[in-house]
Amino acid sequence: MNAVLTCLAVLSAAVTAQVESTETPASRIYVRTVPQGAQIVVDGQKLGASDGLFLVPAGVRKLTIEMDGYDPQTRRVDVRDGWITRVVVELKKKPGETDASKKPDDIEYTACKPEWEQVLSHGDASAEGYRSLGGSGHAVKFERTKMLDYDTVVGVDIFASRYGDPEPPREDFHVYVLDEQGGVLRDAPHPYSKIKRGGDMQWYRLNVPPTRVGERFTVALSFNPHRTKGIYLGYDSDIAQSHSYTGLPDRGFSAVPDKYDWMVRVHLKRSAGAPAAPPDRATAAPSADPPSGDDPFAGPPRDPKEQAVFDERQTRGREVMQKMIERNLCWLIGPPDSVKSYTFRYTLGADPPKEYAVPDAAKARSGLLMATTYYSPLHALVDSPEDATFDRVEVGPEMITLEYTLAEPIDAAYGNGIEGFWRGYFQRPIGRGTLVLDGKTLAPQVHRLGEVTETFSDFAKIDENARVPLRIQIDSEALDYDWRFAVYEPGLWILKEGFVRTDDEAMKSIAKVEILDVNHSAPRVRWPAPAPDATSSWPTISEGWDPQLFEQ
Questions:
Q1: Predicted local confidence at residue 506, as pLDDT
Q2: 3-state per-residue secondary structure call for 76-90
Q3: How far apart are CA 249 and CA 62, in angstroms?
Q4: Are strands 39-42 and 229-236 parallel, antiparallel or unpaired?
Q5: Region at 48 (left for phi over 0; alpha for psi -120 to 50; beta for the rest)
Q6: Pairwise CA distance, residues 191 & 397, whole Å
Q7: For the CA atoms of the chain, what is the radius of gyration?
Q8: Between residues 179 and 552, which one has the greater pLDDT?
Q9: Residues 58-63: contacts with CB within 8 Å, 24+ apart?
Q10: In Å, what is the CA distance from 444 to each residue of 99, 320, 391, 458, 464?
Q11: Would the pTM of this model clear 0.90, i.e. be above it?
Q12: Which of 19, 243, 285, 411 is deepest in the core (most CB within 10 A)?
């Protein structure tokens, strides 16, 4: 089966360009650069700026990345037909150019260090990359063993930049100071407007009300990023040992997957009751020694038995995912080979109807495959189950529950519309979730993703193994969707009608699809879409689902 992943919605069509070709390309390349904004050139044609997703023909392609002040990079990339090929490149400054990330002391930020402060940090303050964590946060553990008389946190520096809408959101992000056990000592809010949007990343001083800490403490940052707002935090991978985590005080912490430290520095001062330090340690530099090993977040190192349990859970989780993929190919990946071509008439809101032709279903742009925008961590799990860590795997006769964390958050996208024309659309960075499958059919039932919940119901049986949902509901803080699908011979699964609800409004029909032909023949409905008379019942949860499974 020439499978085509429905992944176009990972980024807006506004950042998508196409290399000219005699046929419609079905393959894509996602290029991420550090720093952002580099010019992407494939086979001599300029496609746009990084970070971005671009349509390119399959095959070995010459990728060139150019940016003023940086050495150009060229590499050969094997682009697979029907897949997204991911390329991540760190650009190097040309000789003689100044790299702001290498000289943090030269960067102007909100406050300088007074003589009565000491600074704790890890690494060499050079940024090897940056990340924004959806549904999570950044945390760094510190020890002040060599500066015992400096016991009060008064400020936190972050190496960062803001992204999203030009106008900063009218809300705060949060700096938490935690004790050795992870308890909150201080919650210091700061406005998003304090961080500049775009441009080079730089250091920012975030003042914190004086907070006494023990010899070991942690600083955590909650930026609550979404598609329209967020903050990139730099990380330094030139370190001996990581002291950094992902997570938030109310959700727990996990060690970062690779060896790097978030670029976070802590300002300390003496308090009136601070203990006197030995003379040879009073003015010593911050500790560069590895932590003592009593990590309050990561816990003790796994013994061989614990490692075996962890490895078995990963194997079992991937086995479940593989079986789920095999049973759900016809909607998670693409139509079966028997579906060669089709055309349909699409009506979006009050716009005039528009006809779409799909001459080759195996090479269709993914926005046309299901006639709506839907890219979820579920697709990321299907694409690369080995990139997920399964935190819980429970297999029962009626229900299977998988809790997972992705190696890197993805930009999940949802919308009524095709290829940039929407009536309702939102995007969320998501890095972890809980997926509930039917224990007998392995059909997804509920997918919990923080503030987004996906519900799948009204499954139709295509053959002995394969099934497709005739109804998908998306419940979020931004918009709610209710999508109804139909199946046409010989196996085309596509939207029939899409509903949307905003705020407290009633659900309303916004998108309709009329199939004109399948394989150049009159369409024959194999499974009709569920009747649109149940839009007020939101959402419908499959029988047997236990909501207690998802309580935090």
A1: 79
A2: EEEECCCCEEEEEEE
A3: 45
A4: unpaired
A5: left
A6: 49
A7: 26
A8: 179
A9: 58/25, 58/26, 58/27, 58/82, 61/29, 63/29, 63/31, 63/87
A10: 48, 12, 18, 11, 17
A11: no
A12: 243
The predicted pLDDT at position 419 comes to: 64
Q: Are strands 27-34 and 84-90 parallel, antiparallel or unpaired?
A: parallel
Nearest of 111, 21, 12 to residue 53 by alpha carbon = 12
Start-to-end C-alpha separation, the chain:
40
Distance, in Å, from the CA atom of 178 to the CA atom of 211, rounded to the nearest integer, reads 10
CB-facing half-sphere around the CA of 271: CA atoms within 13 A: 14
Q: Count Cβ atoms below 10 Å from residue 61 Cβ, excluding itself.
A: 18
Amino acid at 319: E
- Residue 299 zone, left/alpha/beta (φ > 0; ψ -120 to 50; rest): left
Question: Residue 59: in which H helix or E strand, if any?
Answer: strand 59-66
Query: 55: which 2 tokens?
Result: 């349509």
Angle at 380 between CA 377 and CA 383, to 5 degrees: 155
Spatial CA neighbour of 318 closest among 384, 415, 410: 384
**pLDDT tens track for 46-82:** 888 887 777 888 888 899 999 888 889 988 887 876 6
Length of the chain: 552
468, burial (CB in 10 Å: exposed 0-12, middle 13-18, buried 19+): buried
Structure tokens at 511: 């998108």
Q: Which amino acid is at 538?
A: W
Q: Residue 116: which pLDDT band, with cuts at 50, 70 and 90?
A: low
Query: Is the peptide bond prior to 278 cis by the omega test (within 30 degrees of 0)?
Result: no
Mean pLDDT of the chain: 78
What are the phi and psi torsion angles at 322 (to 5°)?
-65, -40
Nearest to 486 by CA among 417, 440, 519, 532: 532
Q: Left, alpha or beta for 123 (phi > 0: left; psi -120 to 50: alpha)?
A: left
468 φ/ψ angles, rounded to the nearest 5 degrees:
-135, 145
448: number of CA atoms within 13 Å, CB side? 16
| Amino acid letter, 342 | Y
Confidence band of 328 (pLDDT split at 50, 70, 90): confident
Number of helices and strands (H, E) in the chain? 4, 33
pLDDT tens string 359-396: 888 777 666 788 988 889 998 888 777 778 999 999 98
The predicted-structure confidence for 421-466, as pLDDT tens digits, reads as follows: 677 788 888 888 999 999 888 899 999 998 899 999 999 888 777 8
Element (H, E) at 379: helix 377-383
Residue type, 235: Y
Confidence of residue 153 (pLDDT cuts 50, 70, 90): very high
> What Cα–Cα distance (Å) separates residue 118 from each residue in 144, 146, 176, 235, 389?
10, 11, 19, 21, 38
Q: Which two tokens stand for residue 474?
A: 């998306």
Strand (E) or helix (H) holding 492: strand 492-502
